Amino acid sequence: MARIKYFLLAAALLAFTAATPLTLAQAASSTWSQEDTVRIVKDVQKQIVGLPNYAVFDWITFGIHGKTVVLKGYVSRPTLKDDAGRAVKNIKGVEGVDNEIEVLPNSPNDDRIRAAVYNRIYTAPSLRMYNANQGRLGRGLSVARMAGGITADPPLGYHAIHIIVKNGNVTLFGAVNNSGDVAVAGMQANSAPGAFSIDNRLVVAGASRKEK
């Protein structure tokens, strides 16, 4: 089976740092030209990040297999999976979309954990910069959202640190400025009540990433 290279998407970050023009040409030498591949990758990023319901509790990656775009990751609402597939399918040159995005369980307990982890991370002084709202939403989440409604009404705007919760287990995705912030985010998440486990997969922006 042909190797698929996956690219990360952090909201509004357009994380394309792991790919070089040479790598892209190798990934699609039998399909698109290098120029078309670069354009399509950028268009996929733009379409996914531009989805109005793509938020801090979602994380999407994508790869290229022939002229098919393979979508992976996690979303907190089924509509987002469908919206992502439709948006990518309409890109010029894309002949197919393999939508393997996982829809997370609809769980009030997971919702409460999302709110708790969000508050702990985005009210930390050193991490507020990673939220376009500078932590204000973290301090001002409504009682209803804290009690289990945050998936339907997520904090809006840019968030560099994405919080994925599945059956009480938390995974952090995204890119931050330094290893100290990676550590702080992990400690803050660990201090949130209710989570069974924390998997900190944050990376330092610009650092090399291991390919799957």
Based on the model shown, name its key terms.
alpha/beta, four-stranded mixed β-sheet, 212 residues, 7 helices, single chain, Alpha-Beta Plaits, five-stranded mixed β-sheet
Please sum up the structure shown.
The chain is α/β, with parallel strands linked by helices and 212 residues long.
Structure description:
Helix 4 (108-122) packs across helix 6 and helix 4 packs across helix 7. The model is unreliable at 10-29 (pLDDT under 50). It is built from seven helices and nine strands. The protein is globular. Helix 3 (78-89) links the parallel strand 3 (68-75) and strand 4 (96-99). The protein has helices at 21-27, 34-49, 78-89, 108-122, 136-139, 143-149, 179-190, and strands spanning 6-9, 59-65, 68-75, 96-99, 102-103, 161-166, 169-176, 197-200, 203-204. The protein has two domains: 6-103, Alpha-Beta Plaits (2-Layer Sandwich), CATH 3.30.70; 108-204, no CATH class. The protein is an alpha/beta fold and 212 residues long. The strands form two sheets. Strands 1, 2, 3, 4 and 5 form a five-stranded mixed beta sheet that branches. Strands 6, 7, 8 and 9 form a four-stranded mixed beta sheet that branches.
Count of spatially separate domains:
2
Shape: globular
Q: What's the architecture of the largest domain, going by CATH?
A: 2-Layer Sandwich
Q: What is the C-level CATH assignment of the largest domain?
A: Alpha Beta
Distance from N terminus to C terminus (CA atoms, Å) equals: 14 Å
Strand content: 15-25%
> How many β-strands, per DSSP?
9
Helical run tally: 7
Mean pLDDT: 81
Structural class: alpha/beta
CATH topology of the largest domain: Alpha-Beta Plaits
What is the helix content?
Answer: 25-40%
How would you characterize the largest beta sheet? 5 strands, mixed
Q: Radius of gyration in whole Å, from Cα?
A: 17 Å
Poorly predicted runs are: 10-29
Order of helices and strands: EHHEEHEEHHHEEHEE
